[in-house]
Amino acid sequence: MAARTPRPTGTPEDLGRTPGLRERKKQQTRDALVQAAHELFLGQGFARTTVDEIASAVDVSQRTFFRYFANKDEVALAVMAEAEDYFIECLHHRPAEETPLQALRASIVKAWRDLGNARASGPGSITSALELMRMIEDAPTLLAAHLRRVTEQERIVVRILAEREGLDPREDLRPAVLAAVFGSVLRAAHLSWTADREPEGPEGMITLIERHFDQLGPALTGHWRTPGQHPGAGTPGDTPPS
Amino acid sequence: MAARTPRPTGTPEDLGRTPGLRERKKQQTRDALVQAAHELFLGQGFARTTVDEIASAVDVSQRTFFRYFANKDEVALAVMAEAEDYFIECLHHRPAEETPLQALRASIVKAWRDLGNARASGPGSITSALELMRMIEDAPTLLAAHLRRVTEQERIVVRILAEREGLDPREDLRPAVLAAVFGSVLRAAHLSWTADREPEGPEGMITLIERHFDQLGPALTGHWRTPGQHPGAGTPGDTPPS
DNA sequence: CAGATTATGTCAGTCACTGACATTCGGCAA
DNA sequence: TTGCCGAATGTCAGTGACTGACATAATCTG
Hints:
Two copies of one chain form a homodimer.
Chain A: H1 20-44, H2 51-58, H3 62-68, H4 72-92, H5 100-118, H6 126-137, H7 140-165, H8 174-195, H9 201-214, H10 216-220
The structure holds a DNA duplex.
């Protein structure tokens, strides 16, 4: 079902070490579909690429395509989904001493850096994920699907944060609020990336993310025109972190 | 073209005050389509309602439906879109003395309250918008479309904030960050609403939104655990917020 | 090797959405 | 009123995403 990608850090219930021929072939066609779709999308655009084209490029039937991916969006977002899953994994392993916000921030930075170092090019590489991000922004249905994915991830983050801090997310709103804020800051950074392409490569993206996080405090506190003014009523009067 | 709703605060180039029969009929069929779609969606679900059904319920051709709405999602989100537009209008009129965050917060509260008072029931009412919100959450493509709309609104908010504070949003990241944070807090409140339906009506929603905003500071600042507490307890009742 | 699983192909069908063209209707001036 | 123009609508045909049903072929298991 959710046999997305066999990361080296696989779950312990893998049992059989050799996946068997059947599993291997499945993974193989899946990868081929992602690869072919990716090339076609970047070459001729998302909307102008039909599922039939992708399927016949890998020499499978259209029906088979839809057995691997629920819809056309999914194959486009497969690479990004992988990265997001790795982020979740990173978050799980953050030390308990860290502040929730610190843990989140450290996790994305680590995720981007690791994936950037792992595979600089080829299918499923970070650079292709970055290319994808630009494509997503101007393919309406793709953007929509991506945003939906992101909010699903947010739910997971809420659960992890609540568990980590020993809170009931129904009682305490902080996990939900922080997860939402975190997600939106990330999205703002992504948007900024697609707008002006100055910072190249994964490291550029990391820098961009850090810059956005640094603005979190200043953006929420007081007036902007006169920095250091008295904090307004009803606003979080805390100073920016770090 | 973008003849969504004839608000009393119309643009000055309205010229003729009487819209003319043609315009009136157009608005009429548009309303009828929204109304019919709304009833069908709530009655038998979004996915199980076809565009043909909606069209023939209003006695127009399917083609005409698609001349009013770009897709099936749009007619479902029409009511919410109206509310969002009103929020933007409110934001425009906030006094300059307010902090950006204050202005945003005051605007949604005002928007919800005004719309709640204006029309308590009937087509385009707030209560139906609230009903819609629940429907949105479990119709994947609808949720996706809604999220896309929200991010478009966010862009507008960025522009307004930057203009209001006299900043260049490409230089200063604060407008983008705050807009993103604001949007996500709202979304968290919406999710919370759909989860447990305790607070009834528009006022309940306003309360919920306020509660979430109040958690913005606490969520971002420092550790959540009270000194001496260990994670994994999972018990509420400690560190009660607000 | 036989039989149970499982992936895949084929086919038919639904539904969202679009372009092209004909028709009808409201606005407006002679 | 008449008659014309443009806008709104209807009709039709077509594309493309996606699904259910069933048959076939490939793996796995004993």
